[in-house]
Specification:
261 residues; three-stranded antiparallel sheet; 14 strands; 31% strand
Length: 261
């Protein structure tokens, strides 16, 4: 008979393996697989203690414990906040922390919670990224920071913490003309607009490149009607000429731009 919280199974080569799990608030949580039954049981007992004893804190974690650090964070967040996430997220009052490692805390706005609760953050070669639709997407690119951007020149973290990805902490210093990263209807989008006595909205777009091309298209339309206007166009290095032309033809802009006289 297996010890409480332990399920015996076998690996493909026939080697015995022991899975530990625990149920809390009607949520069944897998704790991991272990080569020995006692270790799996120890993981179960520790998980039970964490879920029932609030004296356990995230920074109490030790590498010698039978639980992974990721599971440790998941359990403490469930205990304190009553919400289960598969990733090492801990909710604060106005933001959340994603624990990449015990000593590495990434801060995000609550608005991004759904995304990072379902996307695991990884680090390789100093870059933070997630796997999204089979592609590696850098965290910085999600906040309008280009891969070749230079800190302090093209962007900066206002409080000096490069792990603080809250929107108010990121300032883009050098981006495309007429393009800005904003939050709209719960989503991060790129807004393109142009100034002519006052600002005219060109549109909202999923990428900075689309917004930059839309801005160029608006400039072309305005200059046909007002040839004395001098606007600096966006140069988009990552697009080939044929790609630029195709996107230029497809991109939609506000009807108000066509009405400018």
């Amino acid at each position: 008979m297996s010890l409480p919280g332990v399920y015996e199974t076998t690996l493909k080569d026939g080697t015995p393996s022991y899975r530990a799990s625990i149920t809390h608030q009607k949520k069944h949580i897998s704790l991991g697989s272990y080569p020995e039954e006692k270790t799996a049981h120890d993981a179960y007992l520790l998980a039970f203690s964490v879920l029932t004893d609030k004296s356990f804190k995230i920074h109490d974690y030790r590498q010698t414990m039978p639980l992974s650090f990721e599971k440790w964070v998941v359990l403490i967040n469930l205990r304190d906040n009553g919400l289960y996430f598969a990733t090492p997220v801990y909710l604060m009052k106005t933001y959340f922390i994603y624990y990449l490692e015990p000593e590495t805390e990434l801060k995000f706005d609550l608005e991004d919670l759904f995304y990072y609760a379902s996307h695991k953050i990884m680090r390789r070669g100093g870059h933070l990224f997630v796997a999204d639709y089979g592609m590696q997407v850098t965290l910085s690119s999600r906040y309008g920071i280009k891969n070749y951007a230079v800190p302090g020149k093209d962007f900066l973290f206002i409080n000096g913490d490069s792990f603080d990805f809250r929107y108010e902490n990121i300032k883009i210093l050098n981006t495309y003309h007429g393009v800005s990263l904003i939050r709209r209807k719960g989503k991060t989008v790129y807004r393109a607009r142009i100034h002519l006595k006052s600002y005219y909205l060109i549109g909202y777009y999923e990428s900075a490149v689309e917004a930059a091309v839309a801005y160029n298209k608006a400039v072309d339309i305005i200059k046909k009607r007002l040839p004395d206007k001098n606007y600096e166009m966006n140069y988009i290095a990552e697009l080939k000429a044929s790609e630029y032309a195709d996107l230029y033809d497809r991109i939609s802009i506000s009807d108000n731009i066509y009405r400018i006289l």
